[in-house]
Amino acid sequence: MAAAQGRLSDGAGGMDKAKGTEEEARHKGSHNASNASGGGNGSTVPPAFAAAVEALRAVRLRPQIEVEATPAPKRLAPHAYALEAAVVDGDEDLADGRLVLLHDPAGHDAWHGTFRLVTLVRAELEPEMAADPLLPDVCWSWLTGALQARGLAYGEPSGTVTRASSHYFGGLSARPSASQIEIRASWTPREGLGGVPDTAAHLSSWCDLLAQVAGLPPAAPGDASVVTLPQRRDPQSR
């Protein structure tokens, strides 16, 4: 899966940036509790965080969206769980991204809660779309609109929308120019019973954003083609 491997930071939390390491990559196949806790140090996983992670794993997704667990950053919060995703059409990746669930049982002043969702989404753009001066505002509205469309309550949204273009010269001059959009964002999901946010709905809204960035039509309500996330695999399966 050519999913996003970029640097993630929680702008609203003012916390350290985290980047995947070679050691994390070697353990990419592991979905066990130590990875879910973000530290792999044997610390006890809080029940609210465990419930939030299990809810993520039970989500049913469109078949065009491939999602799998990936090593979570270790410095953003005491507990973290990460997913990476790609929108695939045949052999082509139309968009990709990463979603990280953070949890600090003691709470975080900037979050105004104990949970935080951090995301990176990116996709290639058609030249005419890349030239639209309103594109960054539109992309941000796709994110907030995806959350609002599912009736989700959230707070402290923060993020950036970056548009980049590449032009090739010399030995690479035969390549056509390319443009890419990148959305980095974080928000605080409102907590429900037992202090657990509706992470399943937040993941679904994030996948709605991925699909929209990739140019897919909206999925019909109750679409029978949606599928569940892959079941947890043995860490030694890869």
From TrEMBL:
Bias kind Basic and acidic residues: ranges: 16-27
Matches recorded under InterPro entries: DUF3000 (IPR021555)
Superkingdom per UniProt: Bacteria
Region feature (Disordered): 1-45
Protein name: DUF3000 domain-containing protein
